[in-house]
Amino acid sequence: MSMKAAITACASRSRLALAGLLAAALLTLGAGVPDARAAAVKIAVGGSSCICYLPTILTQQLGYYKEAGVDVELIDFKGGSTALTAVLGGSADVVSGFYDHTVELAAKDKPMQSIVIFDKLPGLVLMVSPGETAKIKTVADLVGKTVGVSAPGSSTDFFLKYMLRKNGIDSNKVSVVGIGNGATSVAAMEQGSVAAAVMVEPAATQMTARHADLRVLSDTRTVKDTIAVFGGEYPAGSFYVLTSWVKTHQAESEKLAEAMVRTLQWIHSHSAEEIMAKMPKEFTASDPAIYLTSLKNMIPTFSTTGLMDPKGADAVLAVFSEFVPEIKNAKIDVKTTYTDEFVKKAHAKLGIKP
């Protein structure tokens, strides 16, 4: 072999070796980063201080979104209705909110689907403000009063209207105002801005701890109480999206479901103290003891599987049909308002047998 041929052959071998090393390096780096096919996802949270949305925040804290291969940005809103507006307006992709909105929107020809359920119970509490305890003893006594909800059009508002209808009261005879679902709701109750309110945790436990004689008109934090109110279990917190988004974002939907299922499994295998330690300090620092008590109250409301209970979905439709004529007349196929496809894939991948 001539000197020139030898040099050419050596150079060729060197280029091949370098290419191999670069390929190996790229594969190694790629194993630890999100799938490039999965775009960043913006999740609109209907009030992050509510423990009902704890699984959404905790999944971020545990790093499960990234490990599933999706880059998530959480955006906080005052209530579920404002979070929904963000998705409908295109400034967010996914709502972390109550499933019942999908049923409401089906009647308005705005199809949306839940892709994973994380709250199997609502955890909503209708309670009387401290200054009105002697005057308001039943739901009927709310006539002519101002009642607080997280935001008009949110699930807290739906719950109030349902309770009024259930007790034979025209909802137009009660004034409804938005008071948020955290410290602002507590302030509204204690300052007398509202005569009653639909509260969520940890605000509900904070109120009962501060005011021993506080009157509770309705409670959905346990299976027994929820069945007493709705006649069955009532699925609540979920990731829900526009049905059109699901069709074009199959990978992201699957990754979000996988991350949430892992979180639900983690929640039910750890103590309340361990869960609380993972949450952002701004959620727990103001009154750690109250937060811990509230969390213990709420853990039983969290799903263990992420799957929809079909009877629960039917219950949501039945409840809305009672006080929303448009829904009653729309003949909604409730099965179109949720899908278990992605949760089942997550179970198979994670080796979970529900």
How would you describe this structure to a colleague?
The chain has 354 residues and is of the alpha/beta class. 48% of the residues lie in helices and 13% in strands. It is built from 17 helices and ten strands. Strands 2-1-3-10-4 form a five-stranded mixed sheet, with helices on both faces. A five-stranded mixed sheet has the order 7-6-8-5-9, sandwiched between helices. Helix 2 (54-62) crosses helix 11 and helix 6 packs across helix 15. It is globular.
Rg over C-alpha atoms, rounded to the nearest angstrom: 24 Å
Structural class, judged by helices and strands?
A: alpha/beta
Helical stretch tally = 17
Which regions are unreliable across 5 or more consecutive residues at pLDDT < 50?
A: 1-36
* Strand proportion: 5-15%
Q: What distance separates the N and C termini?
A: 69 Å
- How does the overall form come out from the CA principal axes? globular
Chain-averaged pLDDT: 89
Q: What is the helix/strand order? A: HEHHEHEHEEEHEHEHEHEHHHHHHHH
Largest sheet, spatial ordering of strands:
2-1-3-10-4
The count of β-strands is 10
User: What does the largest sheet look like?
Assistant: 5 strands, mixed
Tell me the helix content: 40-55%
Helices and strands in order, then pairings?
Elements: H1 3-30, E1 41-45, H2 54-62, H3 64-68, E2 72-76, H4 80-89, E3 94-98, H5 100-106, E4 112-117, E5 125-128, E6 146-149, H6 155-166, E7 175-178, H7 183-190, E8 196-199, H8 203-210, E9 216-219, H9 223-230, E10 237-242, H10 243-248, H11 250-267, H12 272-278, H13 281-284, H14 288-298, H15 310-323, H16 325-330, H17 341-350
Helix pairs in contact: 2-11, 6-15, 8-14, 11-17
